[in-house]
Design brief:
Layout (H helix, E strand, L loop, with lengths): L7 H4 L10 E3 L6 E2 L4 E3 H13 L5 E6 L4 H18 L5 H8 L16 E8 L2 E2 L10 H4 L12 H16 L3 E2 L6 E3 L3 H7 L13 H6 L1
Parallel strand pairs: 2-4
Antiparallel strand pairs: 1-3, 4-5, 5-6, 5-8, 7-8
Keywords: Cell wall biogenesis/degradation, Dipeptidase, Hydrolase, Metal-binding, Metalloprotease, Protease, Zinc
InterPro entries: A_A_dipeptidase, Zn_M74/Hedgehog-like
Enzyme class: hydrolase
C-alpha cells in the first residue's frame, strides 16, 4: 500500500535545514519551462540523470520551487473538489485523499526546493508518459500513478526510462504522480531510511535573494 505524504510516518520526520542554496536549473544545462529553481544538490542530480538518457531524449522540468502560498491554494482547491465529489467525507479522510495529489504545505517538497515535476522530451516534443503532468487521479482514472496499468506500452516504457535515470541519480518518486521526483525532503528521508529531511520551506524567492 502506498504511503502518502499525510501519513504520520512522513509528518513525524524532522526537517533539519542545511542551508544549501537554490540554483536556476537552466544554469545546470537542464531544459525547463520558464525559470525553475531547486536546491543545488537536486539540480546536480537532475543534470546527472539527464546525461544517462539516450541520444535525442532530454529531461524537461516543468516546475521546481513553488511558493508556499501557491502550494496552499492548490491544496485547498483540490480538497474542495474532493469534498464536492464525496459529500459528508470526514476531515481526516479528505486530507488523506488530497495528499495523494497535493502535498499538505507543512511537508510539501516543492516549497523546500527539494522536488521537481518533469517529463521526457524528444526531437518532436514531449514523449508519451500516459497522462499530462498534473492530471488528478479522478481525471486520469488513476493513470497518474506511476505503476498504473491503464496506459499504453509506449508510456510504460517511457516511465521506466524516466525512473531508471532518476533513480540512478539518487532521486525518488512519489508513487501517485509519475512526474514528481525529489531529493532531501521528508519522503526521501522515509524511503531511503534517513533520520531527517535536509531542506525546509523557502520563504523568499530566489530572485529576491539575488537582489539582496
Amino acid at each position: 500500500m502506498t504511503v502518502l505524504l499525510s501519513d504520520d510516518r512522513i509528518t513525524s520526520i524532522p526537517s533539519i535545514e542545511n542551508g544549501e542554496p537554490l540554483v536556476d536549473l537552466y544554469t545546470r544545462g537542464l531544459a525547463t519551462t520558464g525559470r525553475q529553481f531547486a536546491r543545488e544538490t537536486v539540480a546536480d542530480r537532475l543534470a546527472l540523470a539527464d546525461t544517462f538518457l539516450p541520444a535525442g531524449i532530454r529531461l524537461h522540468v516543468v516546475e521546481g520551487l513553488r511558493p508556499i502560498e501557491s502550494q496552499q491554494e492548490i491544496y485547498d482547491g483540490y480538497r474542495a473538489e474532493l469534498e464536492r465529489l464525496h459529500p459528508g467525507i470526514s476531515d481526516h479522510d479528505v486530507h488523506r485523499l488530497a495528499s495523494r495529489f497535493v502535498s499538505p504545505v507543512e511537508v510539501a517538497p516543492h516549497v523546500a526546493g527539494a522536488a521537481v515535476d518533469l517529463t521526457l522530451v524528444g526531437a518532436n516534443g514531449p514523449l508519451d508518459l500516459g497522462t499530462p503532468i498534473d492530471a488528478t487521479p479522478e481525471q486520469s482514472n488513476g493513470a497518474c500513478f506511476f505503476a498504473a496499468t491503464n496506459i499504453s506500452r509506449e508510456a510504460r516504457t517511457n516511465r521506466a526510462l524516466l525512473a531508471d535515470v532518476l533513480t540512478a541519480a539518487g532521486l525518488i518518486n512519489y508513487p501517485t504522480e509519475w512526474w514528481h521526483w525529489s531529493y532531501g525532503d521528508r519522503y526521501w528521508a522515509f524511503t531511503e531510511n534517513h533520520p531527517a529531511a535536509l531542506y525546509g520551506p523557502q520563504f523568499q524567492s530566489p530572485e529576491l535573494h539575488q537582489l539582496c
